[in-house]
Amino acid sequence: MRIKSLSDLDAIKARGLTRIYPDKMKITFGYATCGIANGAAAALETLAAAAEAEGLDALVDKTGCIGYCQAEPLVDVWNPGQPRLVYKKITAKKAAQLVKDLKEGNIRKGWVLYKALREPYLLTDEMREYDVNGGNGTYADIPTSGEVPFFAKQFKIAMRNCGNINPVNLEEYVARGGFYALHKVLTTMSPEDVVNEVKESGLRGRGGGGFSTGRKWATARKAEGDVKYILCNADEGDPGAYMDRAILEGDPYSVLEGMLIGAYAVGKSDTGYIYVRHEYPRALEMLETALATMRDYGLLGDGIMGSDLKFDIEISRGGGAFVCGESTALMASIEGKRGDPRSKYVHTVEVGLWGKPTVLNNVETWANVPAIIMRGGKWFKSVGTPTNAGTKVFSLVGNINRTGLVEVPMGITLREIIFDIGGGITKDREFKGVQTGGPSGGCLPAEKLDLSVDFDALTKAGSMMGSGGMIVMDRDTCMVDVARYFLNFLGEESCGKCTPCREGVRIMHDILTRITEGEGREGDIELLEEIGLGVQRSSLCGLGQSAPNPLLSTIKYYRGEYEAHIREKKCPAGVCKALITYSIDPEKCTGCTLCAERCPEGCITGEKKQPYVLDARKCIKCNACYEACNFDAVLRQ
Amino acid sequence: MATATQANKWEQAAVIIEDYKANPTSPIMLLQDLQAAYNYVPAEAMELATRELGIPLEQLYGLATFYKAFSLEERGKHNIKVCKGTACVVRGAADILDGFLRELGLPRPGTTGDKMVTLEVVNCVGACAIGPIAILDGEYHGHLDQSIVKDRVESLRAEDEEARK
Fold it and tell me: Which of A140, A402, A536, A598 could share a disulfide with A624, CB 3.0–4.6 Å?
């Protein structure tokens, strides 16, 4: 069926609502990559079989990720007349029991993450209240999502639908207000109106640059060219950041609708490309289905929604090169070339893909666009801070208690994210630092915890917003090793075109390797700083210009750790293998035998319930004993 | 017999190249299709593409060496990808990688002598919340420690022993 009018859209919305809220029980699995990685596939299979065997009359479906990845597989149970319940960690082992419980109306409180009594529809600014009079009241002391610390401070714009709909079901997307923004744009707004609305919203590019999206669109609109291109950067390469994957897997239409709105606003554009990272097979699968479905509904191709707009979107699969996240390299890659960046004295909004004016925004940026159109630029600007409008999705990972994706208003502090939402450091250890901005960013220490999280404050502190990775580190992380890790990464990913990046990164990496191996010399720190500044100033593209950031920020905030490596030949964190020896603390060892069982070399011996002894001469420093010990009895000094 | 199998081996490449002739997308897509068919990009297939499509061999070779997704060497029957994204690294991914190397008897990531396993390092698979992670033949395994690594490699070996019987 082709959507040609508002009444067509309304009819689809009505159908979508009956799918989201059917008149019988519906069980939905979080089925994004993290759900699958935690066993959602086997759990779903077991649950479906058990439901069949038990005669439980329920629909079973799949959804994306609500962001609380560590509690996956998450299972959402809709039962008419009752609150919606979200169950956590429903593995195959628990699935059959859950079916039994549901059949009997039993609620195991320990299994439930939260209940929902109502649901906000962001795009239409509605609060959909559930009828909760039918339940037997056993859910009374289960918290609502607002009472669960992980969700309490979150506000979802970009991830509004993730985990709430079947990601590729267009009816469900429309039911929550999807494609109404496109309809609004095509029927009531001129392209200039759209550009102005986005400008007014203050939206800045979520891929890391933080450039004004509205200004980018305005320049592209004015640029001379018979054809213009609309691109989506889904080459999410920053290690530790995966919000774009989650959005593509959980709500691909939000991104594609954004691109359609962009095409209308910029004009003269009939083709868009979405450049998807090679390592995201599930995202690719969802996009392919979503694009085919949109063609069926007449939302791509000629005469979209009965208007004059003609636009189609093609997928371009990445080849696994980090530098292709850089705009000019990405465009070269779409053209079928090596992803070598070029100097940007002429911007890609004027001369981009195949030499034509091109708008490139990332996944999260595009996903924000329909919300800005529906709710207005002013509303968007009212969220966050005056110069950093809206929300940002962060991936909160590393040595932290609650890991996952969190979407928060800009301007929130690091402390709120790490401690209030993330629940602090694992094993109650002390916070050592947080790495933001990926390989282009830096590490920030405890004294920066009250920093406002926005593009400008993070850059000022020597780090970066980047695409939103937030990797929390505890005492077991060596900052010299972290700097070495990033430079190793960047050395592998440098395209090699310009000398400062190709050679500078390699030399900095070699010096750091020397330091971590106990061969550091006086003057190394100063030398690293000098080379770092040189590479920052003279590299061709963003990769090289930001490559020294992890190094320079760790020198700035953790200089003492560098000095310990160089002067005392010690690694205070116990990571750099050349500088540590393993031993067992007889005071703490309980003789539980676990370390001896795990040791691949058999160098740990002793008698049960007596302190064990580690023979350092045979030790290969594989760290298996340290991982295994529950009593902090393995020492790395 | 051997020559017949050899000839058959390139049939698939010929089909992919014919398709590309009819619908030339981008040489990167062509290499991706070849890699999907053979699990690596064979030099013979690139040479065939050069003859049939006129794309210079050095251009194809340049692409195949630039993009990490491509392998110029034949890969193992099983594939293990160890994630070395930052979040996995702060949770001990370096030791996990060492564990795989040790269990597989490899000096560095690559393919084992018996072509049974190819071990690769990926700079982030995007499932950071459950690190350290490895992907074994397309299946994600989170929250790894070295004892799981040992078990996995052993069960992989046992499976193959079983299959050979």
Answer: A598
Joined tokens for residue A417: 């994210």
Provide ipTM, 2 decimals: 0.91
Give the model confidence (pLDDT) of A426-444 as tens digits: 989 999 999 999 999 999 9
Average pLDDT over residues A101-122: 94
Q: Does the domain made of A479-567 have the CATH classification 3.40.1080.10?
A: no
- Nearest by CB to residue B126, choosing from A245, A317, A473, is A245
Mean pLDDT of chain A: 95
C-alpha A124/C-alpha A587 separation (Å) is 63
Residue B6 has pLDDT above 70, yes or no: no
Q: How far is A188 from chain B (nearest CA, A)?
A: 37
CA–CA separation, A364 and A498 (whole Å): 30
Domain A179-380: which CATH class?
alpha beta
Residue to test with chain A: of B86, B123, B147, most A Cβ within 10 A: B86
CA of A118 to nearest chain B CA: how many angstroms apart?
A: 28
Domain B78-164 has CATH 3.30.420.40: no
Provide the residue ranges of all domains of chain B, joining segments of one domain with +: 2-66, 78-164
pLDDT at A357 over 50: yes
Q: How far is B1 from chain A (nearest CA, A)?
A: 36
Q: For the residues of A96-118, what is the DSSP string, one character each?
A: HHHHHHHHHT---GGGEEEEESE
Q: What tens digit of pLDDT does each residue of A270-303 get?
A: 999 999 998 999 999 999 999 999 999 999 999 9
pLDDT for B57: 97
How do residues B37-69 score in pLDDT, each as one tens digit? 999 999 999 999 999 999 999 999 999 999 999
Amino acid of residue A524:
D
Which CATH number is correct for A581-636, 3.40.50.9100, 2.60.40.3200, 3.30.70.20, 3.40.50.1220?
Answer: 3.30.70.20
Give A72's DSSP letter. Answer: P
Residue A531 DSSP one-character state: H
Mutation to test the B interface, candidates A34, A493, A554, most B Cβ within 10 Å: A34
CA distance B22 to chain A (A): 17
pLDDT higher than 50, residue B2: no
- A180-188 and A363-375 helices, crossing angle to 10°: 60
> What's the CATH architecture for A391-473?
Roll (3.10)
Q: Which residues of A touch B122 (CB under 8 A)?
A: 279
Query: B11 Cβ partners below 8 Å, 6+ apart?
Result: none
Minimal C-alpha gap between B37 and chain A (Å): 16
The nearest alpha carbon in chain A to B100 belongs to A622
The answer, yes or no, to whether residue B86 has pLDDT greater than 50, is yes
Put simply, the answer to whether B128 touches A399 (Cβ < 8 Å) is: no
Please provide the size of chain B in residues.
165
Q: Taking CA atoms, what residue in B is nearest to A435? A: B86
Q: Hey, where are the domains in chain A?
A: 18-145, 179-380, 391-473, 479-567, 581-636
Determine contact: B69 vs chain A, CB below 8 A. yes
CATH architecture of A18-145: 3-Layer(aba) Sandwich (3.40)
Say how far apart CA B146 and CA A597 lie, in whole Å: 12
Contact A319 B63 (CB under 8 A): yes
Closest A-chain CA to B33: A317
- Calpha distance A149→A420 (Å, rounded): 6
Angstrom distance (rounded) from CA A234 to CA A159: 15
A with B: how many residue pairs have Cβ under 8 Å apart?
161
